[in-house]
Amino acid sequence: MPATQPLPNATILGYPRIGRRRELKRAVESYWKGDLTEGQLLETAEELRAATRARLVELGLPATGSAIPESFSFYDQVLDATLALGAIPARFADVAFADDATDLATYFALARGDKDHQPLEMTKWFDTNYHYSVPEIDEKTPFEANASALVAQFAEAGEQGIETRPVLVGPVTYLLLAKASDSAGEGFAPIDRLDDVVAVYAELLGALAAAGAAWVQLDEPALVSDSLPVSRDEATALVERAYGVLGGLENRPQVLLTTPYGDSSASLLRLAALPVEAVHADLVRGTLPHGAFSSGEFESAFYRKQFVAGVIDGRNIWRTDLRIASGVVQDLQLAGIDVVVGTSNTLQHVPHDVTDEAKLDDRLRSWLAFADQKVEQVAVLARGLRHGADSIEAELAETSAILADRAAAPGVRIDAIRERVDAVTDADRTRDDEQVRRDAQRGLGIPAFATTTIGSFPQTSEIRRARASFSRGEIDQDAYDGFLRAEIERVIRLQEEIGLDVLVHGEAERNDMVQYFAELLDGFAVTENGWVQSYGTRATRPSILWGDVSRPAPMTVAWSAYAQSLTDHLVKGMLTGPVTILAWSFVRDDQPLADTAAQVALALRDEIDDLVEAGIKIVQVDEPALRELLPLDADRQAAYLDWSVGAFRLATSGAASDVQIHTHLCYSEFGEIIDAVDGLDADVTSIEAARSRMDVVEPLGDHGYSRGIGPGVYDIHSPRVPSVEEQTELIRIAAARIPGEQLWVNPDCGLKTRGYEETVASLTNLVQAARAVRAEQAGATGTA
Fold first, then answer.
1. Most Cβ neighbours (<10 Å): which of 117, 463, 627, 657?
2. What secondary structure, in 3-state letters, does 264-307 show?
3. Measured between alpha carbons, how far apart are the two ends of the chain, in Å?
4. What are 271-283's pLDDT values in tens digits?
5. Could you give the 3-state DSSP secondary structure of residue 710?
6. pTM over 0.70
7. 717 is a catalytic site residue
8. E-assigned strands of 582-667?
9. How many CB atoms lie within 10 A of CB 445?
């Protein structure tokens, strides 16, 4: 058994890894372009890790005792586990075992694919906006321990004089998040390989113990989700089985088992009985077991075991009420629990440091806590445990005063906005009958297998330079608007040349699909350096929704109307939906999300009215985050789907029958929310489908989905150009289950992150593929 070395009473579960100024993003992308060698990339990553460790010590975490997690990743923590387990899908064997293959080359091939390989599928990580690379497992998947990265980073920290805690996704969560590969036998599930995977985890733990690691952190968020292939009770039993083996190893570090992102109270006592040294619980989204203290069960379960209390919110950026959090941890300590103050989850979901936001209003900034401030809050609470709550009374009082100031600040509550929300009726969320709309929209002249894109076109360096020049005052409004009009015309002409049926204006004026609207709506603020990783090297700056929301003026009308004036083709007006605006912002936590969503929906409803009045006949209201906010707790899902669908319908139901409403959703397990997707009542829905090879088509067909649907045939998250044949095959798969008159042909998502060369080639192939299947269908039905 491992030697006992308890954790210090302050820790976090993880820290942002992209760099304070996105240094990792730039280095990795330079490596992909060939501008940086592998050695140079590794050196940059080492420097970033060293800076992170030093910063965490500076903020109050001990340099010794394994308080600091080693949670770095070049791309994705699940992909890291895939490489550590040697679980390379057979279809990548020629990449992984090529003469010049390195771990990093194999890693990025899995993440991004190449001309010969589609990358691993991506989907949302629990109920966050983070995307992970989905492992592909079958009966023959080889598992072989590869602890090189884990050991190297631990040793690197030791050379810096800091003792860290290696972090790895736990075996049960890893397999429950995996998918069966295409070659798997019928009825196979990745979790069937649990014993094989646990054996490899045992080797990894042995390698870390040999390297001197006192602790390892294994994350098991599967324990808090009702949206996985097994029930929570079954997941707990699987964890008991896995950790019964791992905990019994002679040669291993001490184990911290974490349960982030939700409520683990139902399984917490069972987890405490496992042969591990510490258990974590998210006490922001979860609770302690009901009645545990009164019965003495909790104290008994955690006898000689540490409990990491996740009382600091790792998902939002508002200051934690330290007085309440202190009360929780003080009560745990008084009950005899060896309590460690921690975060609810890794801090990778929040920006680095609020002090980097010099342009934010001072009053607003005082209400906020980014990653660094959250670490400081953890350290304060831990000091209170060591020296008593009175020792931190000044910090508690300061936080209470700040929270009171936030509640009373102008703009937080505006009576007129709330009265408008209160006046909404069911009629405001209801459009004309589907058939009435279909008949009215025939006059739009849209063909079967209509081709379009999701909205954005590549954001070129020229666009970024023009935006930066305007922001710095180097060019005036007229010059910037002239640049944007020229860019819109170029994109319109390009789409006409490619042969797309329904066009978009390309969104050159938008820095981000949420931030653009946040800058134009009252009740929001935006950051300069508040970057948060979405997937791989993709980072976003979530806006801050701090007050009641309203639209002071039209936001998109001028650009959409100008684009429509340039062409006889239909041009879509492009909006971001209310749920996605909430999901991709840091939203106020002082009222129900449903109320905030209704405020945003009414602002968008006004915008749609103005777009239609300006002559726009198709309006797309994107809701890629609809599935993302679905609560992990099944008991809360129906209420969420009710208000989220209601918010979309409130935004769109003012449109007349001859106005075609589109929406877009991506990276979702649609089978779970197909009723909600149907309930949106959009005339056309486009969805991610290329990486999964049209997996979504089956549940749509089974459901009898009757409106327009555009399952994506071009995966825009990879630089590869899908051929005409590949896209034709995907369209045929969709057409086999969904009538052709309902089908649209489009990419998976917007093209903002792609380059023009690959975009033009891919869209040209897309149009050719659509025309081929359109001709096939017409010939088969005699309607040529």
1. 627
2. CCCCHHHHHCCCCCEEEEECCCCCCCCCHHHHCHHHHHCCCCEE
3. 75
4. 999 999 999 999 9
5. strand
6. yes
7. yes
8. 585-587, 618-622, 660-665
9. 8
